[in-house]
Amino acid sequence: MPVIAITREMGSLGKDVARGVAEALGIPVIYHEIIDHLADRMRLRKSHVMRLLDGRAGLLERMTADQTSLSIFAAEEIVNAALQGNGAVIRGWGATQLLKDMPSVVCVRVCAPFEVRKQRMLERLGSPDAEKVADEIRDNDEAHAAIMLRHFGVDYADPEQYDLVLNTQRVSVPECVDQVLRLVRSPQFAETDAARQKLKDLALSWQVRAALRRSPRTRDMRVTIKVADGCVSFDGAGYGAGERAALREVAATVPGVRETEDLMRTISMRARFA
Questions:
Q1: Is the distance from CB of 37 to CB of 31 less than 8 angstroms?
Q2: 182 and 238 in one domain?
Q3: Claim to verify: residue 40 and residue 100 sit in the same structural domain
Q4: pLDDT of residue 72
Q5: Torsion from C-alpha of 30, 78, 253, 85, nearest 10 degrees
Q6: If you ran DSSP here, which 8-state letter would residue 62 be given?
Q7: How far apart are CA 122 and CA 129, in angstroms?
Q8: pLDDT confidence of residue 62
Q9: 205 & 236 share domain
Q10: E strands of 202-243, at which residues?
Q11: pLDDT tens-digit map of 138-174
Q12: CA-CA 20 to 30 A from 235: which of 142, 146, 185, 223?
């Protein structure tokens, strides 16, 4: 079943496009579910999680939350949602970046010029305060840009990051939905065994990262993880035999891991503390 990842700007009508695509395909829109699961796992309020993920959290909120764990668990939730066999439209939370290299996933950005978005939000909110609404849109845009740059090192507005960019100033919501459906149904995005395996490996890589983060033995280790057909390999430097053994032992507890491989480099004690 199809998976579509959609990112949008405030006032761009991206929610309407996501809903239209989901209804046409008979699949769910995944958005609040990610927050619900993360709030339970992190034992935080849903509003706190939302502000952390979209970059609008205050200093105190950032200081009182384990943001590294939140980022890892959020990625795990998003990729697991994509892996479910019934298909989904996944809206926001970095899904377009996490899934953009998956052959059968369509990644879409919905946008519109600032003034168009401002007018839409004024009408939607029934507000006479144009400057206040404009400031809210700017803050939202800046937070979105900052969070995408921090976590993925990309400019979220770069069209090369997406399979399809839709400007709702010139293209209506039904036309946007048709454009997305055309891509979803095209041979280029057909779900093949190879594409399904690549998505499984991506999901497994984040499941392993989450397991390592949960374990006191490995939570502070920083290593590169690669997964190919259920084989998990670790690469990095600076860790001793006991730490490296812990990596493999924790990873081996994750369902779907067939074997582990240690590609890590040994550093002498002199070099390590130089």
A1: no
A2: no
A3: yes
A4: 86
A5: 50
A6: H
A7: 8
A8: 59
A9: yes
A10: 224-228, 231-235
A11: 988 888 888 888 778 888 889 999 999 999 999 999 9
A12: 146
- Residue 200 CB burial class (10 angstroms; 0-12, 13-18, ≥19): middle
Domain count for the chain, please give it: 2
Mean pLDDT for the chain overall: 86
CATH number at residue 73: 3.40.50.300
Q: What is the reported pLDDT for 58?
A: 65
* Cβ count near 175 (within 10 Å): 13
CA 189 – CA 207 distance, rounded (Å):
25
pTM for the predicted model, two decimal places: 0.82
Block residue for tokens 């993360």: 38
- Say yes or no: 114 and 178 in one domain: yes
Cα(262)–Cα(129) distance, rounded to whole angstroms? 59
State yes or no: pLDDT of 272 exceeds 50. Answer: no
End-to-end CA distance of the chain: 53
Together in a domain, 146 and 254: no
Confidence of residue 57 (pLDDT cuts 50, 70, 90): low
Q: Which residue has the tokens 């490995």?
A: 218
Domain boundary among 189, 205, 224: 189
**Which of 104, 98, 85 lies closest to 195, judged by CA?**
104
How far apart are alpha carbons 171 and 192 in whole angstroms? 31
Has residue 50 got a pLDDT over 90? no
Task: Give residue for tokens 């809206």.
Answer: 91
Q: Residues near 31 by Cβ (< 8 Å), separated by ≥ 6?
A: 18, 90, 91, 92, 93
Domain boundary among 171, 189, 207: 189
User: Is the predicted pLDDT of residue 251 greater than 90, yes or no?
Assistant: yes
